[in-house]
Amino acid sequence: MRQDIADSVEVAGARRLGRINRVAAVAFTIGGSLFALGAAFAQFGVGSLELVNITYLVGGFFFSLGGYTSILLVVNISQDQRGAAEADRMRWWSFQPHHLGWLSAVVLFVGTLLFAVSLVAAFASGLTPRQSNGWIWFPDILGCICFLASGHLALLDVCDGRIGVRAHQVDWWVVAVNQFGSVLFFLAGLAAFTRPATSSAVDIGLVNWGTLAGAVCFAVGGLIQVFDKPTPTRTAVQHKP
User: Fold this and answer.
1) Nearest CA to 25 among 222, 221, 215?
2) How many domains does the chain have?
3) Domain assignment of residue 187, given as a range
4) Is 239 exposed, middle or buried (0-12, 13-18, 19+ CB in 10 A)?
5) For residues 219 and 232, what is the distance between their CA atoms, to the nearest angstrom?
6) Running DSSP on this structure, what letter comes out for residue 93?
7) Residue-wise pLDDT tens digits, 54-76
């Protein structure tokens, strides 16, 4: 009977993880696609600046959704043996700073929130170069750094503590493609700095093309993630003497 209950809990947990994983995957696919679309609008002068900003803002919402569901995925993957009823319950948060996957997901989510600050500030008009760099560029570049740090932690997590190639693992491909996108985002972020002397970005072409290519990477990463099959893991019970 105990084994039947444990098996039932494990099946329910796997289904829950599958749902969370699909939400995260779809969120990153939509967010990446909208970011790529916004960058294309900006590069080719399609529509107004407001349309570009709205497209980015909606994409940013889906990035934040993907970031939070990534946290949910990590905290629900680790299940300790506390009994069937409690283990079968959905976890909305758990503090796991010792877990590389958890650290990666939290840093990623923080990065999406920093992007959100930048995206909202972009709607302001009449900003001086200093204000633009302070309210738009600075949180944006911090968000890019968070994405890079998150990707590095995720690579360590999927490669068991060291950077390597795991071409046979779906989750490695998700992380590797997203990390490449994070590098492109970072380069675009550096190029977006507003020069005080000219009141223009360092390289607007790199901003748009870097953002577009990086966003495509995240969209592709989201599509690959759909095929990932996260499963619950159980940690051994710690008995105190």
Assistant:
1) 222
2) 1
3) 2-231
4) exposed
5) 26
6) -
7) 999 999 999 999 999 999 999 98
